[in-house]
Fold each of these.
Amino acid sequence: DTAVSQTPKYLVTQMGNDKSIKCEQNLGHDTMYWYKQDSKKFLKIMFSYNNKELIINETVPNRFSPKSPDKAHLNLHINSLELGDSAVYFCASSPWDNQETQYFGPGTRLLVL
Amino acid sequence: AQKITQTQPGMFVQEKEAVTLDCTYDTSDQSYGLFWYKQPSSGEMIFLIYQGSYDEQNATEGRYSLNFQKARKSANLVISASQLGDSAMYFCAMRVMYNNNDMRFGAGTRLTVKP
């Protein structure tokens, strides 16, 4: 019954590596998002996708690239990981015609060593 | 630019009492939505309550109510009859309606409920 799922839940990796975080929603929503929550708990939107179209990109480095193979998935790929990328990354989704809320995934805790 | 401010990094409340978490926002847009989310220690984000800028009545959801004062640009969350399980981080957020995919979050308030 998981609405928005993310894998992995934890990710520990070395600087310079490339990694991906997967996100899937089974709610039939049209729009999906990626957020970054830093150590101070600030939550910032990184990307959103609507029908495979990138809607916004909040000055995120181009090392980060969202990939959406279909409407139910929005994966986050990160190249050349840096120490500052350590954070919790949240995926979320919402229906296009009901913008009252976004449903969040459980988060992926990324630690770059 | 839109901005959300939560000035209380931490709050304490006695079990069964009510508590108000402050949130102010700044926007020049007339049409927007305000949200509150709860993040327990397990890390997930849980939607609590929503208020539209044109809604005349304050939103309520069970023990949660949103004290919306449009002229003051505040959207405080009121939790009545606090429970130990309410201990968590609480985030206020705003989305302007012309850009449905741009959601701004405050820094959060850590609420601790004392037995």
Amino acid sequence: KQEVTQIPAALSVPEGENLVLNCSFTDSAIYNLQWFRQDPGKGLTSLLLIQSSQREQTSGRLNASLDKSSGRSTLYIAASQPGDSATYLCATGGGADGLTFGKGTHLIIQP
Amino acid sequence: DVKVTQSSRYLVKRTGEKVFLECVQDMDHENMFWYRQDPGLGLRLIYFSYDVKMKEKGDIPEGYSVSREKKERFSLILESASTNQTSMYLCASSYLGLAVYEQYFGPGTRLTVT
């Protein structure tokens, strides 16, 4: 059974810093890996999806990488802003089946 | 833009009541999912469906059932609500074509069972 772990569980950094969020998974037979953002009390917003054949995806200040062989993904956030404060979740999928989620990294960007 | 809507943002029900949570997506997605989210446990899959009238159990289906009579609508049913079903419920959908399976989530329903 797939297990997804996110480190750190919480992170607080000053505005303007570049930061890396980590995600690891136990079963490398994944179809894709998806990164989400969740604001308090709200639903999930999809940030980036990396298919198993891809190594990375970029959207604006966000870059996500995937290394299936080592069971790792990272989300890089450049030039962090207070508006980036949220919980970031990674999840792996087996295609048409549901996703398996990590417990998230709670990120606070200090102004 | 994909839009997934859920019938209620907040819901308060009594123990033993039958509860319906409704989810509608407007992008003709084949796959639909129900998750619950609890502090310390994260998101867990309850049920999913890849076609009308089809359903598959997820990781924690006990105490729940689902219904999918139309492609755009997926309902989660709590036959007899219990206090341990107090949680945030999230619905999602994904497109079967292009074989990408990116999931899009609704805003969530926070259910309290008293």
